[in-house]
Write a structure and sequence with these properties.
Layout: E1 2-6, H1 11-22, E2 26-31, H2 34-42, E3 46-49, H3 55-64, E4 67-70, H4 77-87, E5 93-97, H5 129-140, E6 147-153, E7 155-157, H6 169-180, E8 184-186, E9 192-197, H7 198-211, E10 216-220, E11 224-226, H8 227-237, E12 245-247, H9 249-256, H10 258-264, H11 274-280, H12 289-294, H13 297-303
Parallel strand pairs: 1-2, 1-4, 2-3, 4-5, 5-6, 6-10, 7-9, 8-12
Antiparallel strand pairs: 9-11
Helix pairs in contact: 1-7, 3-4, 4-5, 6-8, 9-10
Length: 312
């Protein structure tokens, strides 16, 4: 198949693109500038010049493809509208990337026992309403003859296999620990996120491309961990000289900003991927999170100086 992607140079998109190419598909990717286009070519992706906001360019690229995968801004309704316009009535697949922060809370380090399934009533906080609305627009495009699928992964870790090899949450925690010398969690650190290896995320996309029904929504996870246990693993990565310590939500906001502090690192986001396992035959097999932190990808990145304090 010829597959058009947005976000093909990103962490998720690049790994999905690499997996698609390895499976025999041809991938085209949206590129805003020549340097972005060069990165795509280096990974076997044919660039399509244009910006996410360029309606006609996105629509026409979608129309020319056999399937579309959106791995760019999950809350952008305009790129979704352009893709749906290009695919309407075709029966072609449209895979859209969401994220499990849509079910997140602002617990500031406190735990929650709630685990979300696809049929769990969704009552997003104000900060996530637009992302949920975009997800629902994608799913609703099934009525316009689009085989629409929303994939909703959680905290993703491991080595990306495209132009961007690193994730967001774990490196943010490591960089703060390297910079300050003290690994930090927020409040009690008992807030829990579901987790999944990037390779397992990519395999879910390929399965959904082949078999998911129109209007399908899938959570993608393979276990979970408290943020305190993750930060304690980072402390071991750094040699265990300083134990993990708590800091306040205000201190965390000053370091990471409000979205990351409240949702990505201070809240709970627990989901179940039983539907993906049963309906897609998804069988995650990626390396375990703490192994990747202490002996795998993040250890190699640390040893290479990737998380050293940035100048300027």
């Amino acid at each position: 198949m010829k597959i058009f992607m947005t976000g093909a140079s990103g962490y998720i998109g690049g790994t999905v693109a690499e997996s698609l190419i390895k499976a025999g598909h041809a991938v085209t990717g949206l590129a805003r500038a020549e340097n972005s286009a060069a990165k795509l070519r280096a990974h076997g992706i044919e660039p399509v010049r244009g910006e996410l906001s360029a309606h006609s360019a996105v629509r026409n690229a979608a129309r020319a493809a056999d399937a579309v995968i959106n791995c760019a801004d999950a809350a952008d309704p305009f790129v979704v509208a352009a893709i749906v316009e290009g695919l309407a009535g075709s029966g072609k697949a449209f895979l859209h990337t969401s994220g499990s922060s849509v079910v997140g809370d602002k617990a500031a380090g406190k735990s929650s026992p709630k685990i979300h399934h696809e049929d769990t009533p969704l009552e997003p906080l104000a900060e996530k309403i637009q992302r949920v609305a975009v997800d629902r627009t994608v799913l609703g495009s099934a009525a316009q003859g689009v085989r629409s699928v929303v994939l909703c992964p959680c905290l993703i870790y491991g080595q990306g296999r495209g132009a961007n090899s690193d994730s967001i949450q774990i490196p943010s925690l490591i960089r703060q620990a390297v910079k300050s010398g003290i690994p930090r969690y927020i409040g009690e650190g008992q807030n829990i996120w579901s987790t999944v290896h990037i390779d397992d995320v990519a395999s879910a996309y390929l399965l959904a491309l082949d078999a998911a029904r129109a209007g399908s929504f899938f959570y993608i996870e393979n276990g979970d961990a408290s943020l305190r246990s993750i930060v304690e693993s980072i402390a071991r990565l750094l040699g265990g000289k300083r134990a993990a310590e708590s800091w306040s939500i205000d201190e965390a906001i000053a370091e990471w900003g409000p979205q990351a502090a409240w949702f990505s690192l201070g809240g709970n986001s627990r989901i179940s991927a039983e539907k993906a396992r049963k309906m897609l035959g998804w069988k995650p097999s990626g390396a375990e999170l703490f192994h990747e932190i202490e002996r795998g990808w993040y250890r190699r990145q640390l040893d290479a100086g990737a998380y050293a304090a940035r100048k300027g």
